[in-house]
Design a protein that fits this description.
heterodimer; A: ten-stranded mixed sheet; two-stranded antiparallel ribbon; 12 strands; about 20% strand; elongated; B: alpha+beta; 2 domains; two-stranded antiparallel sheet
Amino acid sequence: MIPIVYNVRSVAQRPLSTALTALGVGMVVAVFIGMLALANGFRAALARTGSETNAIVLRKGADSELSSGLGRDVASIIGSDPHVATGGDGRPLVSPEVYVLIPLAKSFDTTQIANVVVRGVSEQAWQVRHNVKIAAGQRPTSGRAEVCIGSRLTQRFPHTTVGQTLRFGGRDWNVVCNFTAAGSAFESEIWGENEQFMPVFRGEVFQSITFRLKDPGAFDEAQRSLQADKRMTVDVHRESTFYAQQSQLLGNILSFLAIVITGIMAVGAVFGAINTMYAAIASRAPEIGVLLTLGFKPGSVLLSFLAESAIIAAIGGVLGCLFALPLNGIVTSTTNWSSFSEVAFSFRVTPALLLAGLIFAVVMGVLGGLLPAVRAARLQVVQALR
Amino acid sequence: MKYMRLVLANLGRHKVRTILTIASVALALFLFASLRSVTTTLAATAQFGGARRLVTLNATGLVFPLPISYANRIKGLPGVTAVSWANWFGGRYGDGKTFFANFAVDPESYLAIYPEIVLPADQKQAFIQDRTGALIGKRLIGRYGWKLGQNVTLQGTIFPGDWTFTIRGVYTPTDPAIGDDVLIFHHDYFDERIGRAGIAGWYIVEIDDAAKAAVIAKSIDDVFRNSSSPTKTGTEREFQASFATMWGNVSFLMSTIGLAVVFAILLVTANAMMMSARERTGEIAVLKTVGFSDKLLFGLVMIEAGVMALTGAALGLGFAKILYPSINFNGAGFLPGFKVATSTLVVGALIAVGLMLASGLVPAVRAARLPIVQALRKVE
């Protein structure tokens, strides 16, 4: 085996060429990580929204909360169902919810309108959704025109901090609190009391009913018994599955884009690596001749040059990770086309993603180095030494 | 031009290297053109739609309907020449994996207000006369293999049940904003099945003078200001543009990626060019010895860079320009009227020129300044 230090020194010998190739690979890796971090962040925001221990009830056939509608009768049937957990005060942990979208103008550009979710919840909702925490202020008081606003909205929309008044649905609402929800899509929502929102929006109808399962393991049984109930026509989903599904359409589009774009870029980068390695080998033919004369097998030469190419690419991979790292946590927003609502989420650069980027870089390096390395291994000693 | 053979011979010496360089430039510019077209297409949707059409929505939000009775009140306002209405249906077809827009419209007034919806006169009559008839965009024919006269069943998501329609016509839109993957059916039939709720999702209002759009929009909103369902009226263009802004800063992200791609490829190409020039130090010295001037050598190296950059650019941009129309790309319905704009081609060509300068300048200057004696010493 040719010692790896030979390759490391060779790489250091040509700093400019190495730097340019590594930068090229680095950009590809940065775009790769960046785009997947976007898709990741979006998926994570929605996946975190739903809880394993909750179930959500929609009208049969409805594919989102927006298209669903349930009467008060359904709410009371579910409220008295034995599969529903009870809170400390003995009341069932059920939240029949009003779900609507309202247009809000953004702070930085009032011509940009976003469709923001307004969710009317029951008193119990704050217990049912255990990831929801009040960050500032007090919970809305029942019977008053008060709302609590998700933390991701406060930066982007005017009149959304505690003490201000937000106007929508033809009424003024006092903002009495801001809440966080572990980075989930709830943070892009406006919450208030369901009974307050009903008359303002769609009248006597809920869009969804979310409840805490008494036994999270018995979801299937709860689903079966509720869907079989002749008094109502509903679909019951596990809350976590439901929100994960809501991320599918856009999540898949983003991942697809990431893979297509970086795939094409990667081909370009591999071409670049091939060029660099061919040139490196052409200018180092005498060196290779010496190696062969010393008794190194062609196989060793092949491996050695593959390693060199991989080293250059790995340097690029590290650069790419460094470029992509500052993206982590940057908040962006887009419309989730499954629910038609705007969702804010942050780029998520995870260790797994960085590792994938590095592996991707090394694979590009090996692919790019393969043909030139084969040529190096096949060099005739006499010809190379001339 | 007599030196063109020399340039070509130089390029042909390392065929693999030349081809790889051209290919990576082509890939970069293809990607650049594709990504930039996403942003230009989104921006162009704001230019779609008739200037004389207004859209009236419920001020509370676009998921809230308006009473059907508003049609007559809007029609009576000064400056209004025609009114039509529609309601989003959101039905699902088959397994629901492929989605297309479908909504209920008032057939006669809708087709009259949208001359961009083009279909044969007999199909138009058949659609208007059949209460359970449907009109579909031509893309749906290709996607599902539907035929005229065929029955199609949608599952209602907002309005439950199975809804069966008979395809009575296939239209071709002349404006990309209309969309060619849409199914429309009779509002009257819809209204009857949902129990005569008397609702319309939105109104389309035709006015007599585009210049008066803002005034008329305000007069419509004033009429309903103190009613149970206040309205929000704007031009159709504003309505289209609001959909484009819903992507948020996706457009910004796209252009950033596009720039990253160009930059990455610039590095790769510059590197390849410099390497090939370094290898030819001896040769350049020989050319100088036989009387090639510094200027000429500078030019030759630049032309070599230019041939690679411009060939790559022509291939990449040309491929993007031809590919998307030929596969009838519309971004799964999100990017109606997707096209590679002329401005994109121009910017792409400028990038290629920039690439030529960036990758050719260092080797070309080096070639021009090369001291003969020193260079020849290295030649065997």
